[in-house]
């Protein structure tokens, strides 16, 4: 199985959207931030590569 480091824009938006939904439903954030918007917080988590979601192609 080969893992690519880059995601397509669709995979990226799906990962960020799924994580934002988790945060909005009460999941604890994985990073410390002053950000209050679930979407922006999910974007920051994605950029820091801390979201525990994998993509199987």
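Q: What amino acid sequence fits the structure above?
A:
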């Amino acid at each position: 199985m080969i893992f690519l480091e880059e995601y397509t824009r669709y995979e990226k938006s799906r990962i960020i959207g799924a994580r934002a939904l988790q945060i909005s439903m009460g999941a604890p954030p994985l990073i410390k931030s002053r950000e209050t918007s679930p979407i922006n917080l999910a974007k920051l988590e994605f950029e820091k590569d801390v979201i525990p979601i994998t993509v199987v192609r």
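Q: And what stands out in the fold?
A: Residues 5 and 11 are 12 Å apart (CA to CA).
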